[in-house]
Design goal:
Helix content is 67%, strand content 0%. With 295 residues, the chain is mostly helical.
Length: 295
């Protein structure tokens, strides 16, 4: 089959589009590269530098990372974060799937009312103080449950998954019912296998949200043994502004390493996400499009 030759306008658009994408990629990658190079640069040169750091300044050093890892709570915080992320993501994804599946069925009574109530919470909420009082009255202060149960479901994610489920041909459900399949079997054997893309996107949303969360932990936790990684790293950055922080192995004043500590803190917090994202990225675009446009 003979391929159609592209017009001059299409060629110009392709060149412009490629240049724009390269520019955007550089725009998003440069800050990360700047922080990565700054975290291993000479601290005195970093303090004197006012522009982008495209390569290590002076003699490369891991002093910033070494100072962070000397904090006795850093590994405990890492484990806490893994527990929070795994527990909250599994629980949230499970509830989101069930809610979206029910709301996607047209024969469910009060379906429109439930949809309205969920959308309503996307616009209005109780506020910070009522949420705190609720968590306190439920006895979840200073427990892991305070970071898992109160923020189980994001209404936006339910709406995306519901829309995705609504696009599954109704004939598949009818055929399954004729074969004697119940609602649970239909969900497990039909709906979820053909919804892997949107499922990967929802899981990614929950993982990122829980990984980056620190504000709720600062409200509901006082026991430092329960701190997530982000809250411990925030504490390290704040404490690095005074002399009470540990000194490095050579006896140098830790104040010298303050800029490196901040850069290294950022890198430690984003490296896990940078590792995970490429494996899920292939599902991201298709999953969001499936869940956002109703055909």
């Amino acid at each position: 089959m003979e391929m159609r030759r592209r017009s001059k306008g299409e060629k110009i658009f392709s060149v412009f589009n490629a240049a724009l994408m390269i520019l955007l990629a550089l725009f998003f990658l440069l800050p990360v590269w700047h922080v990565a190079m700054g975290s291993i640069s000479d601290p005195l040169k970093v303090s004197a530098n006012t522009g982008l750091i495209l390569w290590p300044l002076g003699k490369a050093t891991l002093g910033g990372y070494r100072l962070i890892l000397q904090n006795s709570f850093i590994f405990t915080s890492y484990m806490n974060t893994l527990i929070y992320v795994a527990g909250a993501t599994l629980f949230s994804t499970f509830i989101t799937i069930l809610a979206a599946y029910v709301l996607s069925r047209q024969n469910v009574k009060l379906n429109k009312i439930f949809n309205f109530l969920i959308i309503f919470t996307m616009i209005f909420n109780g506020g910070l103080i009522p949420n705190y009082i609720l968590v306190r009255n439920l006895g979840m202060l200073d427990t892991r449950w305070a970071l898992i149960i109160p923020f189980t479901v994001a209404p936006y994610n339910i709406m995306i998954m519901r829309t995705s489920f609504q696009q599954i041909p109704e004939e598949l459900f009818d055929a399954a019912k004729i074969d004697g399949a119940g609602y649970a079997k239909i969900l497990w054997d039909i709906v979820l296998p053909i919804s892997k893309a949107i499922l990967a996107v929802i899981i990614l949303f929950y993982v990122i949200a829980n990984w980056n969360a620190w504000f709720n932990a600062s409200l509901y936790l006082t026991d430092r043994n329960l701190y997530p990684l982000q809250l411990t790293l925030r504490e390290i950055v704040l404490l690095s502004t005074n002399n009470s922080v540990v000194a490095d192995a050579d006896g140098a004043d830790v104040m010298i390493f303050r800029p490196l500590i901040k850069y290294a803190t950022i890198m430690i917090s984003i490296i896990p996400m940078l590792i995970i994202y490429p494996f899920i990225q292939k599902y991201f675009v298709s999953g969001v499009m499936i869940g956002s446009v109703k055909g």
